[in-house]
What does this fold into?
Amino acid sequence: MKKVYILSALLLVGLGLSQTLPLFFDNYENLSHLIKIGTMICLAFIMIHVGYEFEIHKNRLKEYGYDYLIAFTAATFPWFFVTLYFVFFLIPESTPAVDSWVQSLLAARFAAPTSAGVLFSMLAAAGLASTWMFRKTRILAIFDDLDTVILMVPLQMLIIGFKVQLLFVIVIMFILIWLAWRYLHIIKLSVRWKNVLFYSILIAGAAELIYFSSKTIDETVTVHIEVLLPAFVLGTMISKNYNRVKTDEGHEEDILELKSEKKTSFYISAIFMILVGLSMPLLEGISGDISKTKAIDEQIVDAYVSGKEDTELFTHAEEGYNWGMILFHVLIVTLLSNIGKIVPAFVYRNEANWRERLAVAIAMFPRGEVGAGVLIISMSYGISGMIVTVSMLSLALNLLLTGLFIVIVKRLLSMK
It folds into this structure.
């Protein structure tokens, strides 16, 4: 578990730096873009390894269909719960009903996807890569991230209308899924870390090229291709037989089992944890909201003393929040988003005992890069205010708790 604690500490360092570095750099946007690219490269590196270890049994389509249904449910429940909370407790009553639902549906989508990169790095560091729990979580996490990205298309269309560019994302995804199915472990490519890093740079570069190309066509409709799926698919296509080497003892083993490869993979995971923390958007607006609330309170007192109550002031005061209220909302949203992930604990009764099933559910709790991407997209469409602030803090809290989640999973699996 030492590696888990190290990764958790690095994640915490990254989160702290994400909120302090912008205060010292005038052109932090340039640095944040480099952080984003670095995060994409590291995520692609991790997901290529995940795909390489992934086995698709083509005679089990029904089983995979069931897994996708569970992943869809585990992604939908948190989204549904958080959306309702935003609509009925956080969106100002003055907001038109349609706008209230549209904004909440898009912003609340951050609660749906499990952070595949963070999760797999942590589970591998905890020595759980050979367990049934890891294999099942791997399938569900990839499926629920895929489901999240696909559903973002119609959600974006609710705001900007039908755009052909957005359909491009879905087309690319279906092509990638077909490639994984058609060329499963056939392509003769090396999985030595230098090669995998090169593939990762190419994938991240291609994603950025598509993004900037779409921006030149229409700045209001940008195409985001998450590196998670392309990297995973490339990993599934790489031949395992091609990547077997002879050891000094004369035995054959997979390249990824070499100590040098394991050490490098951990270093990449460590860098990824720092970058994920650094990728957290600056929590702007909280201090402003609090100071505004205090100013309004003072104006209300002055108005009351002078006998000149202002109805508009009281209306704004009702919309004010303080730190206690913010933290309360963050805790509730975090609780709702994690309760929604508990679905796997109640299924797979024929495959595992209750501890293993519960471990899968808890392993699905971590949120990270995909959820942050959802919030960034939401803000790009002008969604702001308390729902974004609470969402960011909830995402940060879940990231901070990732190490604890993995410890609980480890304890559950070690129980007899």
Remarks:
- DSSP finds 17 helices and two strands in the chain.
- The CA atoms of residues 8 and 403 lie 5 Å apart.
- Residues 285-320 have pLDDT under 50 and may be disordered.
